[in-house]
C-alpha cells in the first residue's frame, strides 16, 4: 500500500530522516517505535503529504506523492484519517461538529445525512448520545475515541495513529488498542501507528519497525522484535537505562555523571 524509499528530511542542521526505507503492507498495522524526538511524527506527516521531505519517494498504490501538485495531494489526503496525539479536538465545537468537521469542510456527505454518519462512527468507537457534549466535558479516553470517530468519519483506507495511548491509564489504553484492532478488521484499513508504548505495539502490530538515527534499523513481527538480537532495539523494547542508545548520548552521560 505504501512504499517509502530513500526518504530524507532535515530541519536546519538537524537530520531527522536519513535515507529511510519502509514498506507498509495493505490491510495491516505497521507500528513504528523509537525514542522521543527521533522523527516518528515527521515520518507520518511526510507520508500524508503534510511535510515535504528533502529527498526520496513515498508511493501510495504505486503513485509517488512527492511528484504530485497540490490538487492531486488533496485527493490523496482524502484517503487518510489521522488520530492526533492529543486528539486535537476543536474546543469551540461540540462532539458532533468535531466528528463532522471534514465531512462538512470537504462536502463529502450531504448535510441531511451528516448526523446519521456521526452517530454511526461514534457508535463504532463505543460512544452514544454525546454529540452535544463539549470537549471540556470529556475524559481523556473519551477524547481519544471522539478523535478516532472523526478519523474514520470519511471512511479512509489509510489510518495514521500518533501515540494513541499516551496519557491514558492502562485500562483505557487497552480499550484504544482493541478499537484499533477492531477497525482494522471491520474496515480493512491499512494503518501506521507511532508509539513508544511497547505493550500497545505488541498487541496491535502486524509488523514493528524501529526508527533510530533517521533510519529504520529493524522490521519484524512482534515476537521477532521482542526477542531481537539487535542491541539497540533490545534496549528500547526492554526499557533498559543502559545500553547503546544511552551510552553514546552525551546528554545522558552528563546526567548520570552528576
Mean pLDDT: 91
Q: Approximately how much beta-strand content do the residues carry? A: 15-25%
> Largest sheet, described in full?
6 strands, mixed
State the strand order across the main sheet: 6-7-8-3-9-10
CATH superfamily of the largest domain: P-loop containing nucleotide triphosphate hydrolases
> What is the alpha-carbon Rg in Å?
19 Å
Query: Architecture of the largest domain in CATH?
Result: 3-Layer(aba) Sandwich
Query: Uncertain regions: pLDDT < 50 for 5+ in a row?
Result: 251-258
Give the helix proportion (percent range).
25-40%
What is the end-to-end distance? 49 Å
Report the CATH topology name of the largest domain: Rossmann fold
What is the CATH domain class of the largest domain?
Alpha Beta
Order of helices and strands: EEEHEEHEHHHHEHEHEEHHHH
| Tally of distinct domains | 3
Classify the secondary structure makeup into a structural class: alpha/beta
Oligomer: single chain
Q: Explain this structure to me?
A:
The structure is a single chain. The chain is an alpha/beta fold. The chain folds into 3 domains: 1-79 and 156-227, P-loop containing nucleotide triphosphate hydrolases (Rossmann fold, 3-Layer(aba) Sandwich); 95-155, no CATH class; 231-258, no CATH class. The chain contains 12 helices and 10 strands. The strands form 2 sheets. A 6-stranded mixed β-sheet has the order 6-7-8-3-9-10, sandwiched between helices. β4 and β5 (63-64) form a beta hairpin. It is globular.
Short description:
This protein is 40% helix and 24% strand.
